[in-house]
UniProtKB/TrEMBL annotation:
Protein known as: VWFA domain-containing protein
Pfam families per UniProt: VWA (PF00092)
Chain ranges of the VWFA domain: 424-605
Phylogenetic lineage: Bacteria, Pseudomonadati, Pseudomonadota, Gammaproteobacteria, Pseudomonadales
Highest taxon above the source species: Bacteria
SMART domains reported for this sequence: VWA
Length: 607
């Protein structure tokens, strides 16, 4: 077991000048998952990224070899903002590996309470320390050990000139008795860093960094190319920018699985900068022959004119949108336009799907409502002969009160559920998944086969598809309503589906909630089919789109619906646990299996 080694402060200075205590170094990448679990368990924001902190420069004065000298020194300190939690890439401040690891845990616990600002750095940190110790008193021994180690790491006030000595004494007092110091004495130099506290944000530059474990290599299954291309950046030496290496997204721990690199390299805060998102969208190619998407994904297209567009079903529907930065809704912020395909031609089921459809109809026909006789009723369609015979026997034997329930009634064994299927038909669905099929092709086949199955089970269902181009034009394609039969007209609308624009999921989900809430059935399922995460040109990239979609899913739960996401996105484990929950989504690893898997997934949801 490691022992605390008593060292004088000048010995600390000497060791630090030689690289601190490298034999006791603890690396952030080794502790990242433990820190993430702790941060989430203590109520920290799950959407934050865990990123290495860049060094900050301090101008300090210290006495060394009986001389007072000024020097510039860089330290990696902890801080957080609305997007990320920044911790030192490594810790070797103490001659104890356990103490260095405990320092990581303490900083994560402190950061779970929020961000610190320049104007309340001293009081704010003391208050946060008090709050942590009140909420989790089990951390008190750890904090006291870290304080003892930190005080030995810090300069002795006796080695500092007057004002700086008073300031150091005040900092020591604040560490030992949090909340007891209101102001720090001013001095010409910077105070020695307080490694147990959080520091304010230095800059608001764009986050750059490399996501560990993501090298854009081919996937293990079939050698398919990655669906999303990642922005790359080199780590820089500048200490005054909020840059660093991103380890992973803390939301990934919700699923206890893979890393969550929701792309934060761009700033999604200004609509004026939204067009820059274009440069980051995919020229997707995931087929074996590396064939590019046939659309070439051009984003400078104008919206089609009304005379050339699909049929508009009434005026647009204005919907709210959740702004996570304001922690509030933007009322009537989006305009959703219901559409009906003008080019759809009634079509029979494609020949290639008929065999699978016949099998599904046979399987799902067992779910359709059955007529069952309920015996011993007070009234009904006909007499219950068994009940009548028992009454005669009771009457002749004089066995007391005679049973009056002499009828039987036939009732339908009804499945009390309705399903709305919402398909994402954004431009990324124009991607080839093999030499012959695009994502949109397998999506159409999946909708066709699922519809054949639900028709056989007689469960009420509706089909819609969506894409978007900014908040004022969200296209909501009507394929089949709840009260419409599934026939050649519906099949023709499905066959007419083509890739659209972007993926503003929140608005499409909210409109689906409205439609499902109007249904009388007890169980209501919202089944979302998608091939990627939320995105659009204006604001709706990165965390903004993810948070709005997550809020829309929560609205569905509050409305008594069952939202479930089916995706072929290889990176879905990175964001769907946070958006839908760990049990409300499934990733189809082989996209060609989507049509066959959809009916099976529906069966599992409705049992």
């Amino acid at each position: 077991m490691e022992e605390w080694v008593g060292l004088k402060w000048h010995e600390y200075v000497t060791r630090q000048a030689m690289g601190e205590f490298p034999e006791y170094t603890v690396h952030l990448k080794d502790e990242a998952r433990t820190l993430g679990v702790l941060f989430r368990a203590m109520g920290g924001d799950p959407a934050l990224s865990l990123v290495t902190a860049e060094p900050r420069q301090f101008q300090i004065r210290r006495r060394f070899l009986h001389k007072l000298a000024g020097t510039h020194r860089k330290f990696e300190l902890a801080w957080r903002d609305e997007d990320s939690l920044r911790l030192p890439e490594r810790l070797a401040l103490f001659p104890s590996r356990t103490a260095n690891r405990d320092l990581y845990l303490w900083l994560a616990a402190l950061a779970s309470l929020g961000e610190i600002h320049h104007h309340n750095w001293l009081k704010g940190n003391q208050a946060m320390v008090q709050e942590v110790l009140i909420r989790w008193p089990g951390l008190e021994p750890t904090y006291q050990r870290l304080v003892r180690h930190t005080l030995q790491w810090r300069p002795d006030p006796d080695t500092l000139p007057g004002v700086e000595a008073n300031r150091e004494a005040a900092i020591r007092q604040a560490l030992i008795h949090p909340g007891s110091v209101d102001d720090l004495p001013e001095a010409l130099s910077d105070p020695w860093p307080v490694i147990l506290w959080l520091y304010p944000v230095l800059g608001r530059g764009k986050l750059t960094g490399q996501i560990i474990g993501d090298d854009n290599t081919q996937s293990k299954s079939g050698g398919l190319a990655k669906k999303r291309k990642r922005r790359r950046a080199e780590r820089v030496d500048a200490f005054d920018k909020d840059q660093g290496i991103m380890l992973f997204r803390l939301e990934s721990l919700f699923s206890w699985s893979e890393f969550i690199p929701v792309d934060r390299a761009g700033d999604d805060s200004d609509e004026d900068d939204a067009d820059s998102v274009v440069d980051d969208m995919d020229m997707i190619s995931i087929s074996l022959d590396r064939r590019e998407a046939s659309s070439a994904i051009k984003f400078d297209l104008d919206l089609p004119s009304e005379e050339n567009d699909d049929l508009y079903l009434g005026p647009g529907i204005h919907l709210p949108e959740w702004d996570w930065r304001r922690q509030g809704y933007r009322d009537n912020f989006c305009c959703l336009q219901p559409l009906l395909s003008k080019d759809a031609v009634p079509s029979p089921l494609p020949e290639r799907l008929k065999r699978s459809a016949q099998t599904l109809r046979q399987q799902f026909s067992a779910l359709k409502p059955l007529r069952q006789w309920e015996r011993r009723q007070l009234e009904g369609e006909e007499l219950d002969l068994d009940a009548c015979l028992e009454r005669v026997v009771q009457h002749r034997r004089g066995l007391g009160e005679v049973d009056q329930k002499l009828f039987r009634q036939c009732k339908q064994n009804q499945r009390d559920l309705a399903c709305l299927v919402l398909a994402d038909i954004s431009l990324s669905t124009d991607t080839y998944i093999n030499n012959n099929q695009r994502v949109i092709d397998i999506a159409r086949d999946g909708l066709q086969l699922l519809s054949e199955a639900l028709t056989a089970s007689r469960d009420p269902f509706a089909l819609f598809a969506f894409s978007s181009r900014r908040r004022d034009h969200i296209r909501f394609h009507h394929l089949k309503g709840f009260d419409e039969p599934y026939n050649d007209t519906s099949r023709g609308r499905i066959q007419a589906l083509e890739p659209g624009y972007y993926t503003r999921m929140g608005a499409a989900i909210r409109q689906s909630i409205k439609l499902l809430r109007a249904r009388p059935e007890h169980q209501k399922i919202l089944l979302l089919l998608t091939d990627g995460k939320p995105n659009d040109l204006d604001l709706y990239e990165g965390r903004y789109g993810v948070e709005d979609t997550r809020m829309a899913v929560q609205e569905a739960h509050r409305a008594g619906l069952t939202p479930f996401c089916v995706t072929i996105d290889e990176e879905a484990n990175e964001y769907l646990p946070y958006v839908f929950g760990s049990t409300n989504y499934v990733v189809i690893k082989d996209p060609t299996q989507l049509p066959a898997q959809l009916p099976k997934l529906y069966l599992n949801l409705t049992r």
